[in-house]
Design brief:
Blueprint lengths: L1 H13 L6 E3 L2 E3 L1 H6 L7 E6 L7 E4 L5 E4 L3 E4 L5 H12 L8 E7 L4 E6 L5 E4 L4 E2 H7 L12 E5 L5 E5 L1 H7 L5 E2 L4 E4 L1
Parallel strand pairs: 8-14
Antiparallel strand pairs: 1-2, 3-4, 3-7, 5-6, 8-9, 10-13, 11-12, 11-14
Length: 190
């Protein structure tokens, strides 16, 4: 795992073409690695060059923070891996001369969507990156026989909460209007 994280971190540093690591829930591509905003449950690897005692893998806690030797508590939630690396490099520079820090995303656990109502497997689903409404419904096993496919509600999380009505049958007929979900979004199938 340490070698994978190191290679992924180095590949992003020097700009190598897309690499993807297979995982139980999917793959972390360089795009996800670069753009993902860290959150609770994400597993990261921190490598400090020539400091084996500081190189470690850790899970971001429920409060969005990690504890790291020499610098204590660091807020990781809301930062990208690059941003977290910058913060750690800055704080470690008070203890080490020119620290070289690489942070890598090992496993994405903070991107969650909720699917409830008339689906076969209502649950919270952890996904690695972009997922659409149709994909989330498929992860939930599809519709029950009593499901209304024309009046599916999507509650969008974020600074501006939204309520979107999604018509699955219209999507099947025309292949359009398949909303992309964000972490924390909820699909309610009536």
């Amino acid at each position: 795992m340490m070698i994978r994280s190191l290679i992924l971190g180095l590949s992003l540093l020097v700009g190598l073409p897309a690499l993807a690591w297979s995982q139980e829930q999917g793959a972390i591509t360089p795009e996800i690695h670069k753009e993902h905003t860290l959150g609770p449950g994400d597993i990261i690897s921190v490598h400090v060059w020539k400091q084996p005692d500081l190189t470690q893998q850790m899970t971001i806690g429920p409060g969005g923070k990690i504890n790291f030797p020499l610098i204590g508590t660091v807020t990781a939630q809301g930062l990208t891996v690059q941003g977290l690396g910058d913060v750690m490099r800055s704080r470690l520079s008070q203890h080490l001369r020119v620290p070289q820090v690489t942070v890598s995303l090992v496993k994405l656990n903070s991107f969650r969507v909720y699917v409830t109502g008339e689906v076969l497997k209502p649950d919270v689903y952890v996904v690695n990156g972009t997922v659409t409404a149709v994909q989330a419904i498929a992860m939930a096993g599809g519709f029950t026989p009593f499901a209304s496919r024309k009046d599916i509600i999507i509650l969008k999380e974020g600074a501006e909460s939204q309520r979107i009505v999604f018509n699955y049958d219209k999507f099947v007929q025309k292949g359009k209007d398949n909303p992309v979900l964000q972490s924390g979004d909820t699909i309610i199938v009536k």
